[in-house]
Amino acid sequence: MFRFPAKHPFEDIVDFMIIEERESPTAFKLICSSGYHSGQTELVFPAEAKHECGGVSVAWLVENWSKWIYPGCGIESVKYVDCYPSNHGTTT
Prior knowledge:
Layout: E1 2-5, E2 13-20, E3 28-32, E4 41-44, H1 58-69, E5 79-80
Antiparallel strand pairs: 1-2, 1-5, 2-3, 3-4
Pfam families: Imm45 (PF15572)
Domain Immunity protein: 3-79
InterPro entries: Imm45
């Protein structure tokens, strides 16, 4: 899961998540996983994003974040959350 500052039409902070997608050349796509747009497909990864061992290449993500994923935020502002917990982002 990737969390980063965003602008309209997203909330101030948005979460994107990589999920499986059989129709994708990489077998993965990126969806919005927070707020009003939760569940919306943001990107079906192109063939060049595929890592040689499978999955999505981290190097490709870093190099292409502003071009393919979200141009309004540099990669340096993106936080990676491993094993996205169900209560992530909630306050008690």
